[in-house]
Design a protein that fits this description.
The complex is a heterodimer of chains A (395) and B (262). Chain A is an alpha/beta fold. Chain A contains 17 helices and 10 strands. Chain A has 3 domains: 85 residues, no CATH class; 149 residues, 3-Layer(aba) Sandwich (Rossmann fold); 121 residues, Rossmann fold (3-Layer(aba) Sandwich), CATH 3.40.50.2300. In chain A, the strands form 3 sheets. In chain A, strands 2-1-3-4 form a 4-stranded parallel beta sheet. In chain A, strand 6, helix 14 and strand 7 form a beta-alpha-beta unit. In chain A, 51% of the residues are buried. In chain B, the strands form 3 sheets. A 9-stranded mixed beta sheet of chain B has the order 11-10-9-12-8-1-6-7-13, with helices on both faces. Chain B has a two-stranded antiparallel ribbon with strand order 2-5. Chain B has a two-stranded antiparallel sheet with strand order 3-4. Classes of the chains: A alpha/beta (395), B alpha/beta (262). At the A-B interface, helix 6, helix 7 and helix 11 of A face strand 5, helix 2 and helix 5 of B.
């Protein structure tokens, strides 16, 4: 393993992850949320990985798969390092050897073959659109907002509602938009964190080429994972990428959107790691929820940068932790219960799925529910406050 | 150890609704994803494991369209050394005997110790190709193999029988083994490996190149006529058993006994 070249730039592992920059202060492990339920000690891995003779042995330690890529360690590192990426680098060694868990293997193969990690055919990617008036994008057609749905929202029946409801809202609000056809392909967020560098590079290359062809002013991502991945790992995209909650906040501020009826509920907003601590979008989702009359918006003790990870990211959808200790999502819903919230609002498909499971596991189904912000908005009558004559709205 | 491993590109019918084409003799596959046949994936892994342990080389053989090259490259990324893809519209590919004749045409004049196939293909589910191939090549076979042991030139194949029973047979090589799923855990083919596998030889041939007379493997030669495909009418019958738990258990037991299940 000595002198092993990890990347195309022929950097060593130590160079690639700037291991010598680490001062071993331990803020990474101190802040790491999964340490309450697993043995993961990211500081230790950063220390040990400096010895390149140990890399293969380290890559066989199951703990490397406990990381949820929440980025708390990166946010807190005083040296600006990304300790989690050392774990991803070790995962890459496993992936390159071919000896991955079958669930990881299948997710990666499905992404390579069909453009999504869920073992679903590419041809059925837009089945969620059935029965809706959706404008599907054509590359040569100019459009303001080009929507990128996300594999999980496109295929998972629990969260498809996010896309379906936003289509109805866009139509009613007269927004200039279009959705990608079945050529929409995984952004690679989870492929990156699962350690498949080669496939991630391929997705970046192919998606950049595909997305750059569209005559759109900007891309609107429904999932924080796609949103952050495009903004962090796609240097050659020729248009900005925003999250849909940013678009909604903008429409509300410009008085192009309003909600006719109110909702007398106590809502606690859960900051998704990929939207909040990784991309700094904290206020827009809150301002959308506050725009609903009657809503009492309350806060978790751990909110914004300190938001507790739901454990849905970092490829964890395909790798189960061995720990039998309470899941972080369960801790989160207990916190919401203590706040007597009626609804835990989230703006990420993975958060919705993990928190939803936790509500069931804790038996809180009678008292509260988990809802994607679009799910809540879908229950309201949407108005176009200032009708725009520029666009014909199909209804 | 020279190995030939036969693989097939098949639709995954588990994730999309199965619809028939207008003629009623073919499935509309436009909404399916395609991938290596499950059992063939295990056959690829087993051949690579044997190569890694005993040295040798593995040639992949497949009948299929250009689209299936990606599956072949993945097999080569996992460790197979070269590939032959046979593409010819004249092959009656629904008839496993015709398929076996074509595969035999690609293998028979080569030097080989083992031929692997999957035990069954997910599309037509006949489980015949590997066995027919052994017959045509004039060599022994073992079907539904769940474990392979090689010692002092002897090959022991553990065959999975019904009811959890395993049968161990010793057979001489060359031989055909049809591989059962679960014999190993197929590895992942990383994309960098697939790109490197572009350098390995993938020979595309037709029946004429193989010297296989088309009239021996075409629809005319086949003794099978595919009459029609249809989707059975879904029927369901549910009986809700009412009463106290003890009564429910008694009623359930009596139903099972009457049905001959207990």
């Amino acid at each position: 393993m000595r002198g092993m070249k990890m990347t195309t730039e022929n950097q060593t592992f130590t160079e690639k992850f700037d291991l010598l920059g680490c001062i071993q202060c331990g803020r990474c492990t101190g802040g790491c949320p999964v340490t309450v339920r697993t043995n993961l000690n990211v500081r230790r891995f950063v220390y040990d990985a400096y010895n390149e003779d140990l890399l293969e042995e380290l890559s066989r330690v199951a703990d490397i798969w406990d990381c949820t890529a929440c980025h708390t360690c990166a946010v807190r590192c005083p040296k600006g390092l990304k300790p989690l990426e050392v774990l991803i680098g070790l995962r890459s060694l496993v992936v390159e050897s071919g000896k991955t868990e079958p669930t990881v293997r299948d997710a990666l193969e499905s992404t390579f073959m069909e453009g999504n990690p869920w073992n679903k055919p590419r041809a059925t990617r837009n089945d969620w659109m059935e029965g809706l008036d959706v404008i599907v994008a054509e590359p040569e057609q100019k459009v303001e907002n080009l929507f990128f749905v996300c594999c999980t929202i496109a295929y998972d029946p629990r969260v498809q509602v996010t896309a379906r409801n936003i289509v109805n809202l866009l139509n009613k609000a007269g927004v200039d938009y279009a959705f990608l056809g079945t050529d929409e392909t995984c952004c690679g967020s989870e492929i990156f964190t699962l350690g498949e560098d080669g496939l991630f590079e391929m997705l970046i290359e192919d998606n950049t080429e595909m997305l750059n062809e569209y005559q759109a002013d900007r891309i609107v991502a429904l999932s924080p994972h796609c949103f952050t991945t495009f903004n962090t790992h796609y240097p050659d995209l020729n248009k900005p990428v925003i999250h849909y909650t940013q678009l909604l906040a903008e429409l509300l501020e410009q008085k192009k959107l309003a909600f006719k009826d109110g909702l007398e509920k106590k809502i606690v907003y859960h900051d998704p790691c990929y939207l909040g601590k990784q991309s700094g979008v904290f206020e827009e989702p809150r301002s959308v929820l506050k725009a609903i009359e009657g809503v009492e918006l309350v806060e978790f003790g751990r909110n914004r940068e300190r938001s507790l990870c739901c454990e849905g990211g970092g490829g964890k959808m395909w790798v189960e932790s061995e720990s039998k200790i309470e899941r972080l999502a369960e801790t989160r819903v207990k916190d919401a219960r203590a706040l007597e919230a009626d609804i835990i609002a989230a703006a990420c498909p993975f958060c919705v799925l993990t928190l939803d499971d936790a509500v069931k596991a804790e038996g809180f189904e009678e008292e509260m529910r988990v809802a994607e912000i679009m799910e809540i908005l879908g229950e309201l009558e949407v108005m176009q406050e200032k009708p725009s004559s520029a666009q014909e709205v199909e209804d | 150890m020279k190995i030939f491993t036969c693989i097939k590109y098949v639709p995954d019918t588990s994730e999309a609704e199965v619809k028939l084409d207008a003629g009623g003799t073919a499935v509309d596959s436009s909404r399916f994803s395609f991938d290596i046949n499950d059992a063939d994936n295990y056959a690829v892994e087993e051949s690579v494991l044997i190569k890694e342990k005993y040295e040798g080389d593995v040639t992949v053989v497949s009948i299929g369209p250009k689209n299936s090259d990606v599956m072949i490259r993945m097999a080569m990324a996992k460790g197979c050394d070269r590939a032959i893809r046979i593409e010819d519209d004249r092959i009656a590919s629904y008839d496993p005997l015709m398929v076996a004749r074509v595969l035999a045409g690609a293998i028979k004049d080569q030097e080989f110790d083992l031929v692997f196939t999957g035990c069954m293909a997910e599309d037509y589910g006949q489980a015949v190709t590997g066995v027919a191939l052994a017959e045509i090549l004039g060599i022994p076979h073992a079907a539904y193999v769940k474990k392979v042991e090689l010692e002092d030139g002897k090959l022991k194949a553990h065959r999975e029988l019904e009811g959890g029973l395993m049968e161990v047979v010793e057979i001489t090589t060359p031989a055909v083994l049809t591989i059962q799923t679960g014999i190993n855990e197929p590895r992942y083919a990383p994309i960098r490996g697939i790109r490197q596998a572009q350098k390995k030889e993938l020979k595309v041939v037709n029946l004429d190149d193989l010297g296989v007379p088309a009239d021996e493997v075409s629809a005319e030669a086949s003794q099978i006529v595919l009459e029609k495909l249809y989707i059975p009418v879904v029927e369901s019958k549910a009986e809700i058993i009412e009463g106290a738990p003890e009564e429910k258990a008694e009623k359930l037991a009596s139903i099972l006994v009457k049905g001959g299940l207990l």
